[in-house]
Amino acid sequence: MDKEKLLSELQFKAVRSSGAGGQNVNKVSSKVVLQFDLKTSSAFSEEEKELLLSKLDNKLTKEQVLLLNCDEGRSQLRNKEIVIKRFLLIIEGALKVAKSRKPTKIPRSVIEKRLKEKRSQSDIKQSRQKPKF
Predict the structure, then answer these.
(1) pTM for the complete prediction?
(2) Separation CA 4–CA 99 (nearest Å)
(3) Which of 64, 65, 55 is nearest to 91 (CA)?
(4) Alpha carbons 124 and 67: distance in angstroms, whole number
(5) pLDDT in tens, 45-62
(6) Can you say whether the dihedral through the CA atoms of 58, 60, 61, 64 is positive or negative?
(7) CATH value of 3-95 in 3.90.1010.20, 3.20.20.220, 3.30.160.20, 3.40.50.300
(8) Which of 13, 69, 108, 132 is surrounded by the most beta carbons within 10 Å?
């Protein structure tokens, strides 16, 4: 993954934000919307694109566009930095391949402990019964 190439493919749009800022909100477009078209991206190989499509399926639009927005800060520049960091974290997390789980063998001591506990529980219940004559 080439970060420079990836960042050059991002599209940004500034829109009016809600939230903190008072009257500044009504005048300034501080909310930043990031758009990334996965289908036309040349920053990823075909295998990486398939991996991203499967992992980010619920975050993509029908046209395979990833949309992220940020209106946390009052500054457009700050919001742009935040949304870029968030985008890179999402992409890096989606590209990680999970290790396959190897089922572990149950240790002998654990099996013996369980059987011993069963025997002791059985003895306790046997001792509660009425004696047989």
Answers:
(1) 0.69
(2) 28
(3) 55
(4) 63
(5) 889 889 999 998 898 899
(6) negative
(7) 3.30.160.20
(8) 69
